[in-house]
Amino acid sequence: MESDWGSGFGVLDQRAALLVAASVSGDVMELSAVSDWLGEVTADDLVRFDQWVRRRWTTAEQRAQMERLLRLDVLAAHPTVATAASVLAHGHVRERAVVVLASQEGVPAARALAVRACDHVGPIRLAASAAVMCRLDVDRMQVIVPILFTLHRWHRGWRTAIFDDYLAAAEKAYGIDTVWSHLMVNSDVHLRRHAHERALGLGVLDVERGVARYASERDVLVQRTLGKAVLQSTDPGVAARLLLRGNSAADRAAALARFDADVLARDDLRRLLVDRSALVRLWARRRWSEIGEDPVATYRQVVADMARPARTRALAHLGLSECGHIPDVATCRSLAHDRAASLRAMGLRLLLGRAEQDDAFWLLDVVCSGSRGESRWARAVLAAQPGLWTVADAESMWLADTPETRHRAWKLCRARGRWDAVVADLRACGDPDPLLHGAGRAIRAAMAHYRPPTDDQRARVAEFLPTSGLPDSLQRDVAARAGLPYDWTASRGRRDR
Fold it and tell me: Which residue has the higher pLDDT, 6 or 150?
């Protein structure tokens, strides 16, 4: 099952409105369609939708209409409607839906009952819990437990212990090994991660299973749990070979720290010298030295080998700097202008704290028009050396038509700190882009620690404060700390106009 929400909660609200409208009009066809849809969504989405619908405000007339149209005989005559009715905000309707669902044996009914097993109304919760506890077969367990686990994650120990009770009953019926072996292959990613951790603690996930599944596992967190089982292997060669090629940096670092250099394959060590993890690179250099090789010489060979991927050469430059052989400024500039994006980003990263006045112009250009990664590193270089540039240098970015460029201008000016950050927030608050408009929330927290602003900063505060749209109390606070008079009546009049 895949998430149906797309880019936000707007889909939730649309579906909730559709469900309420169908329940008020008694549209059986539409309610059945909603029930079918609920049977396909993920456990997280089902629980989220249930909470969203029941928090949606409904009028007394709508509630009365729901109760009148969705009687017990109507739900019994149209069993598929009961799933949709079970998430409505009317307690009597949910109670009737639970009665109908309890008489059904299918998977959709089991999922809906699992949600109601944590209902805030006691009689509904007890009836749904009793029905869930009667559905212990493996097929329905695979759809019930993800729902119960989602509720357990979001509201741990709240209202009921149905999650623990259901698992205890299933373990008693089928055995611990059978239950957790099935849950480890469940389609719900959160449950799979929990199941592997629990199975490892219970001894269900042993070395043999860990070795067999490790290489093919794509989920990093699950693979990390499998790696704990692999580390218990009596054959260090097998364990090291698997862990050094794993997706988890923690596993790769653990293998390098656990096993001696003579156990580790030479090719694996050489590859891990340019690993994306700093900890893995550190241990790889140590093991590489233990077999008589010089990490610095190896890094220089990788840097000079133009046939190597750009990302590998970039990490070799980083490895050299970690060994104390930091490239000179000219080399960093050359890297920052390379054709390969990974080398450009690395050049900017290595330039941190060592830029010169002549670099400010092109660094500002990178902040404005570079990729997000390059822009972030160029901003870090400029923020580390604010003497190279002024806020006025970013003015063209503030005036750009694209919200992304203005957002970068805000981050850059805010990185200067103190009153420059306050001015950037105030200017962002008046921006039409909604993401930038929310920047003013961060103003008050650190402002008490600022020194008085300069005359130029005070003038900019006076320019952008009236159009910020901030509450009167916060505007008054900013004005007072900046040493400015503040007429809240005039401010309110401007907003009203």
Answer: 150
